[in-house]
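Something for you to look into today, if you have time. Just paste the record in under my message, thanks.
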Amino acid sequence: MTASATIEHSVSTPYGRVAAVDHAGEEPAFLLMHGYPDDSYVYGNLVPELSPRRVVTFDFLGYGDSERSQTVPMGASQRVDETAAVMDELGIAQAVLVGHDGGGPVAVDYGRKHPDRAAGIALMNCFYGHSDTLTFPDMIQLFSDGPLAGFTDAMLAEPAQGLWLLTHTAAGLGYDTSEDVIANAVLPQFVGGRGRPNAVEAIRAWTARIPADLTAQDEAVAAGELSSVQTPVDVIFGAEDTDLDPGVARHLAQLFPHARLSLVEGARHWVQADRPAEVASLLKG
């Protein structure tokens, strides 16, 4: 591939096909992982700033341009397995694993499982286990509460109520629903867009795992599995995030023996969309 080549892939995983985009460039690659409830569009501002490095983005199963074959419940290893499939099929020998929001724990767990494939780990406004200041937006808490599934379905079935929920959640994070990252990365997951149906089942499946995943992450921390990670770790947080806040960032940084903490002033939850040039500079070191 030439330095300007961009190739779209449909990657086979044990759970269905996921969409990936490979931007050619210098190795090691950056592998960018999104969280919930959005897709790889959240990295649109960041990708060109990472040139001349190779950059790969992909949509987890059920999100963005990936296959809508997600079922409930989702297995504990599914996201790591999807990541492994992308790494293998695209022939990525090593990558800096970049995880935002729910993608952060995936980056950590893939890096722990495959340390020889991780050139670095970068964690952006995410979490790993419980911490003193960790909170989730109201909408994420609602989706992760199984007994309230019927209530959530009824709310989403009424367009005005669903829009209110999204508007309320965006405002809590400091965003307006007209802003690019909300309008083009979050809203389509609920109402469909860009020629794809909604991703509500995928959102349900991933967020339903939050309680169990947090417990498993706490156990990994207690067992010293993160303190033994030798891969360099960058913790890059938008300082204005009120849920995954600087306290969560400091908690994350102290879990690893080789971590660098950077708080980006003026950036909110989607730090890579708010301050792409600054984030790229930090990622490239």
